[in-house]
Amino acid sequence: MTKVLLGQRAGFSVKTLGDYESGRATPTEDGIGSIAPVLRFPVSFFYRPELEEPPSESVSFRSLSRMTAAQRDAALAAGALAFELSQWIQKHFELTVPNVPDLSAYQPTEAALVLRNHWRIGVRPIGNIVHLMESQGVRVFSLAERSHQVDAYSLWYHGAPFVFLNTTKTVEHSRMDAAHELGHLVLHQHGAVRSRDVENDAKAFGAAFLMPAESIRSIVPRLTGPSFSNMVQLKKNWGVSVAALAMRLNKMGLLPDHSYRGICIELSKYGRTREPHAIVEREKSAVLGKVFGMLRESGTTKADVAKQLDLYTEDLDALIFGLGQMMASEGSSGQVRPSADAEQRRRQFRVYS
Known about the structure:
Layout: H1 3-10, H2 14-22, H3 29-39, E1 60-61, H4 69-92, E2 93-95, H5 108-118, H6 129-135, E3 139-142, E4 152-157, E5 160-165, H7 171-187, H8 196-210, H9 213-217, H10 228-238, H11 242-251, H12 257-267, H13 286-297, H14 302-308, H15 313-319, E6 336-338, H16 340-345
Parallel strand pairs: 3-5
Antiparallel strand pairs: 1-4, 2-6, 4-5
Helix pairs in contact: 5-8, 7-8, 11-12
């Protein structure tokens, strides 16, 4: 929202809003009361200490050339809200210590295999990449500002790795986004995250991490032919899109250029927002599901958490994949235990990974 539009809706001049924004003037209580409903935040939110937004130069953004400054800033502001929520959770629960090594010395495809070995998952297909990353201490949130130009982004914040995923994309697209951002976390911990080469490195890492060469070669030679229907069936092994699998096979020399072009032509009939035989169930956070499930069992509601953060419940939903409305996630990924202080208050329940 521009200052012009905000001024029109809240009854302020652009100059006055600029003075508020820069700190040259302070709005009255009535002024905050006029601004808050327009921006859809509780009045109390505006009296909190200033939020720490992630520095844009340390954040990996895909499709940066197609992203406006407003879209970028909105995504970063959403990240600031996620940091607030993450810090609140860490005060009440003990989360998994990050186990995300610095692999900048390796080439992207080598780094993907090194990380798989480090995490002891071999070359088997990854059933749920969100759960896998969480089990290794990566903090995963959904992207509150759901711009189609912002696929995902990642960064290190106070020693913890964070990934933000756009939940409006196809599941296959989102899984590749997650692997791509994981590539940034292990390859670019100490350097720039804004260049074509850096993006290509993360892209190569993501493809190799989700589709290990050894895993592909153990299956692909059994094909009778590299047809489009073959691709649709094959992609189910690794939970990726037909486009991603076809590109991976082509780069590995297992799909001739003319066959690859034919598959791309066939895919163009689906457009950019549809996927043939798409995965239906979206991957969600196991950690956040367990946290909010445990809170619910202790009598703490999502609304209670939102109030402590001076947010509305829909603001939390936008960050936690809607998990505030669910019971604790099934499965065993993502270790979450009550911290020492919380242990005294909530001895009646545990969550084990």
